[in-house]
Amino acid sequence: MSGLRNEVLEASIRILGPATRQVLSTRLDSRKVLLSPEGLRRDWRGLAVQAEIDEGSISSGKISDTECFFQKWRAKGGTVGELLKFLEAMDRFDVIDDTLEMIYGDYDKSQSEVGGLRTLSPPPIDQVSLYDQDILTRDDLRNLEAGRGLQHYDALVLHADAERDINFVQTLVEKLEGEYGLKLCLKDRDLVGGLQLETEAVVRVITERCSRVIVVLSPEFLASNMNRYFTGFAHALSVD
């Protein structure tokens, strides 16, 4: 797109502030009947198709469909330039006009908060601390140190601490990771130690970082209020 600030186009959609996302959600949540000239839905579904995110995986629960889409797309590394390109293909120039200045403001704010670092570019190892709020797992640390983005998982595995549950999970992990090449997240194995709010971290993994949640049901699992909360939360978001 010509005439726009290149540095903003290259920035991650993580820079988008709550007010900007709210406007986007307000304009894109409502399902449109007419298609764009390119045959795309003119609502959040058009974004999902272009971002190659399964529409069926997006179910708002207590948040908007558009916000749910952005949570999933953030984990895949979507950029502002892609967002504007997608909206253009959807013939939603009205949304671009309504949000472009807000996006510029979000970008400028992000630059001042990180001392002028490019928000899109993965931070060098000595600047990882600037992204502490997004570091949830050990894979995040390794990826950022290697110049890659935050880790996305095929599934989060929830289980009780009972010995038989742990033994079953070990077999499950060996099968899914070893034979099928899936990337799993286990709370005790993968979450960064010392997180002040472990519950919030697990919720963010469910909403932002994984495609599915695997629950190993057992009497011990169901006896935990926290495990029941995580399971109910994932169900409310319609995470598989």
From TrEMBL:
Database matches in SUPFAM superfamilies: DEATH domain, Toll/Interleukin receptor TIR domain
Keyword list, A-Z: Cytoplasm, Inflammatory response
GO BP annotations listed: defense response to Gram-positive bacterium; innate immune response; MyD88-dependent toll-like receptor signaling pathway; positive regulation of canonical NF-kappaB signal transduction; Toll signaling pathway; toll-like receptor 4 signaling pathway
Superkingdom: Eukaryota
Keyword Ribonucleoprotein: no
Record's keyword annotation contains Cytoplasm: yes
One annotated Gene Ontology cellular component of this protein: cytoplasm
Coiled coil regions in record: none
Subcellular location: Cytoplasm
Residue span, TIR domain: 151-240
UniProt-listed InterPro entries: DEATH-like_dom_sf (IPR011029), Death_dom (IPR000488), Myelin_different_resp_MyD88 (IPR017281), TIR_dom (IPR000157), Toll_tir_struct_dom_sf (IPR035897)
Annotated GO MF terms: TIR domain binding; Toll-like receptor binding
A Pfam family matched in the record: TIR
The protein's name: Myeloid differentiation primary response protein MyD88
